[in-house]
Structure to design on (676 residues):
């Protein structure tokens, strides 16, 4: 039974990380119907920004809590700036082009950002400082759920709650939902659609940056390539949950994380990805729009 | 039509070969051409460039001392970027330029692709770094030699260390699903099972680059393993030792020379303490090794990189063989290499019938206070 609980927490932690990245994919898709393949790179840039800020601050001897908060805010702001700029440079000019064009543009942006970080920083793995301390009160259960797992789970939950609040109860959120439903109609009722799209990219990027900070601190290393696999997995999770649906992205991520964890634990880690993607195929066969996705109705 | 085409092709090829071979033969009397092949650019250049430096240093020393039997060494340096499909071009180019012996290639895959071309021309090839066991053990490449121990020898060293020195009986074997890591892990598993002294309680591959390895770490704990032998490279190794520490595992971590790299200690930090990794024997007590390292410092004003001493040794062995054989004929060279011992930075070596150097081995190192310390 202990083993089951250990795997459960391991899967939840993994799923939470996927969720933070998957939200960016799903929000952007919901609003402009684009799969933003550069989103994994935003996560990577967030981790790098946090790394640089945390390293500098620790040289000046800041307390750990201050470092986490400042590094987190800096990563979120910097990644948001990237997300905003990418949208303006690579996607906005192609908004009325055929659907394939922005997709290729997104893949190009992803390759560009990877190589940019490779050249501007390094191709080596860098040791990421352990920003999440080992709490003493966690010591009795540390072998089951560690301090960093706990912090990741709590942070993800808080972030989700804030996001839900923004989307359900604020003017920006209402405008976002309107734009997602019908962009032309939203424009007609006076919503500045361009601003709303930018806001979506900013929020999605900030979430990915927080994910980058948490996971980098959890596993203790980063390099320019970490965004690729994390991005693919998060994208899978978003599709699993129904791309375009925000609760779907969270549910999909948790299902994916738990599947991987239990597949490793009870079968073999050789087949971790096989199980994850078999599950995706099965769900898409029986529910093509994903777990919580709405079937797309063609407007006539 | 097909016949006509192939006929044309053959005649064209023959013309090209004649055109190339004439100048090559013309110069062959004055110098001995050493091909140097390996990745000299791209992301794996750091594995190939030290061999180029070694070749330059040894060639200069030999030439300054009057050459080999009066003939000067001329180096032909060609890049293969570590890619098999490019290595065949590199090999063809070196062969057509008249290389008589070749130092290289560096990566096992590239070496394997290039060897048939050299074999057809009867060119001796000596690699400082290609560790794939099949290169020598398959018997397909009688022209191939190397100054590094193959991967299976390394797995054997690790397994013996676990069984004899540490005395463990329950071992988990984990790998990164890659050619090198999985190959190493399979050898380790085989040696463990053959020894009859220990049980392999877990044999699994992890996905490189995954965001989290806690599930496999939990599984290692559940398996009751006293030690985990890991086949792969340092990025995964440092993640696994980190998560083992987080989950409070006391299991001993033992790995290969893909992990015995300072980056492992740099990235894993305190979590790396106590971990074992095998790597080429420490040659610090060998006077020739000191000479080689100082020559590098004096010439290039920097520290030598990976496989430098192996490449330096390969150059010495080839120079010695040519000198004693009096020619670059493959059969004569092989005879010298297999019978005459030669003093090199990696030890006093000769080569067995398959082409592996006898006297070059691996040691197990432990991370202690941020350094790899050789376990005697």
């Amino acid at each position: 039974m202990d083993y089951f609980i250990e795997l459960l927490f391991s899967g939840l932690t993994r799923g939470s990380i996927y969720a933070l990245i998957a939200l960016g994919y799903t929000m952007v898709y919901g609003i402009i119907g684009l799969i933003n393949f550069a989103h994994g790179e935003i996560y990577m840039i967030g981790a790098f920004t946090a790394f640089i800020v945390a390293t500098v601050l620790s040289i000046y001897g800041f307390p750990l809590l201050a470092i986490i908060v400042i590094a987190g805010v800096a990563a979120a702001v910097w990644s948001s700036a990237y997300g905003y700029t990418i949208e303006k440079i690579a996607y906005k000019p192609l908004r009325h082009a055929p659907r394939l064009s922005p997709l290729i543009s997104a893949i190009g942006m992803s390759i560009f950002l990877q190589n940019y970080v490779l050249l501007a920083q390094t191709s080596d793995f860098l040791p990421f400082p352990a920003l999440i301390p080992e709490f003493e009160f966690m010591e009795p259960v540390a072998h089951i759920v560690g301090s960093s797992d706990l912090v990741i789970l709590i942070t993800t939950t808080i972030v989700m709650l804030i996001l839900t609040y923004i989307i359900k109860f604020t003017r920006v959120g209402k405008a976002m939902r309107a734009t997602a439903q019908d962009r032309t109609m939203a424009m007609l009722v006076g919503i500045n659609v361009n601003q709303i799209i930018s806001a979506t990219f900013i929020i999605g990027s900030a979430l990915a940056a927080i994910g980058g900070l948490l996971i980098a601190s959890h596993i203790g290393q980063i390099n320019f390539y970490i965004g690729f696999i994390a991005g693919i997995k998060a994208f899978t999770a978003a599709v699993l949950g129904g791309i375009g649906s925000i609760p779907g992205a969270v549910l999909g991520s948790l299902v994916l994380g738990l599947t991987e964890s239990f597949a490793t634990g009870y079968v073999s880690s050789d087949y971790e990805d096989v199980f994850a993607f078999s599950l995706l195929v099965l769900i898409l066969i029986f529910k093509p729009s994903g777990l919580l996705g709405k079937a797309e109705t063609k407007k006539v | 039509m097909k016949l006509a085409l192939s006929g044309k092709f053959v005649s064209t090829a023959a013309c090209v070969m004649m055109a190339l071979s004439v100048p090559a033969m013309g110069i062959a009397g004055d110098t001995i051409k050493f091909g140097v092949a390996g990745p000299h650019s791209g992301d794996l250049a750091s594995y190939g460039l030290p061999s180029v430096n070694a070749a330059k240093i040894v060639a200069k020393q030999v030439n300054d001392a009057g050459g080999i039997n009066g003939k000067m060494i001329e180096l032909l340096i060609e890049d293969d970027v570590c890619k098999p499909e490019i290595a065949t071009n590199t090999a063809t180019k070196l062969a057509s330029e008249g290389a008589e012996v070749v130092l290289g290639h560096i990566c096992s895959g590239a070496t394997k692709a290039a060897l048939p071309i050299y074999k057809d021309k009867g060119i001796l090839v000596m690699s400082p770094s290609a560790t794939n066991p099949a290169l020598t053990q398959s018997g397909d490449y009688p022209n191939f030699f190397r100054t590094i121990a193959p991967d299976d020898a390394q797995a054997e060293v690790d397994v013996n260390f676990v069984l004899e020195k540490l005395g463990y009986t329950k071992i988990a074997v984990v790998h990164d699903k890659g050619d090198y890591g999985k190959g190493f892990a399979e050898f380790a598993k085989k040696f463990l099972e053959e020894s009859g002294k220990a049980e392999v309680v877990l044999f699994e591959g992890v996905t490189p680059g995954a965001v989290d390895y806690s599930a496999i770490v939990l599984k290692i704990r559940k398996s009751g393993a006293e030690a985990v032998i890991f086949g792969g490279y340092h990025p995964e190794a440092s993640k696994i030792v980190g998560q083992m520490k987080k989950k409070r595992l006391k299991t001993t971590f033992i790995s290969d020379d893909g992990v015995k790299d300072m980056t492992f200690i740099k990235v894993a930090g305190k979590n790396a303490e106590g971990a074992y990794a095998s790597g080429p024997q420490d040659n610090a007590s060998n006077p020739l090794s000191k000479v080689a390292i100082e020559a590098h410092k004096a010439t290039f004003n920097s520290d030598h990189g990976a496989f430098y001493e192996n490449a330096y040794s390969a150059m010495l062995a080839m120079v010695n063989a040519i000198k004693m054989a009096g020619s670059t004929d493959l059969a004569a060279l092989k005879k010298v290499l297999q019978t005459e011992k030669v003093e090199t930075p990696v030890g006093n070596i000769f080569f067995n019938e398959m082409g592996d150097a006898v006297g070059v081995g691996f040691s197990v190192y432990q991370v202690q206070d941020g350094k790899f310390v050789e376990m005697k």
The interface with chain B takes residues 3, 6-7, 10-11, 13-14, 17-18, 123-127, 142-143, 146, 148-149, 215, 218-221, 223, 225-226, 228-230, 233, 260-261, 264-265, 268-270, 272-273 of chain A (CB under 8 Å).
